[in-house]
Amino acid sequence: MRQMMSKISIIATTAAMMISGVNASAAGTRSTDSPGFAAGSQLFLTVGKGTGNTPLGAVRTLTCDPDGGSHPHATKACDRLREVDGDFSKLQPKNNPVCPTLWSPVTVTAIGTWKGRSIGPWQKTYENKFCLHAATNPVFEF
């Protein structure tokens, strides 16, 4: 539990620095290639293998309005989040996709702001990458 709280603290601190315009490299962490955040929505997204107590995996920034950040599919991800008004808990599979009963958990997190509203830290563990893709594509596709 302590390890999980530490990870959430790191995510929250980094996201807060990014949203406030502080350069992450000045704090001794890896800076992204994304431009500074403009007005709109600023999110810090992570994907990691396993349950919530696993090591942090891939990390991306996502800005919406204007769309950008280090996310490889920023515009599509922002469009998907606009469909649910930035409410990650409303991301659901479309068109009844197949989600195999394979247990290979993937945990995702999101923290930041959506149109000025605080987001997270939000976290969810999916049964496997197929279920994650079905529910959240393309938000956590990186």
Question: Topology of this protein?
Answer:
Elements: H1 2-20, E1 41-49, E2 58-64, H2 74-83, E3 106-114, E4 117-126, H3 129-136
Question: How would you describe this protein?
Answer:
By secondary structure, this protein is an alpha+beta fold. Helices cover 26% and strands 25% of the residues. The protein has helices spanning 2-20, 74-83, 129-136, and strands at 41-49, 58-64, 106-114, 117-126. It has a four-stranded antiparallel sheet, with helices on both faces. A hairpin with an 8-residue loop joins β1 and β2. The model is unreliable at 1-38 (pLDDT under 50).
Main sheet: which strands, in order across? 2-1-3-4
What is the molecular shape?
globular
Helix percent band: 25-40%
Order of helices and strands: HEEHEEH
- The average pLDDT is 78
Tell me the quaternary state.
single chain
Q: Taking Cα atoms only, what radius of gyration do you get, to the nearest Å?
A: 15 Å
Number of H/I helices: 3
Contiguous low-pLDDT stretches (5 residues minimum) are: 1-38
Major sheet attributes: 4 strands, antiparallel
Percentage of residues in strands: 15-25%
- Give the strand tally: 4
- Helix-and-strand structural type: alpha+beta
Cα separation of the termini? 27 Å
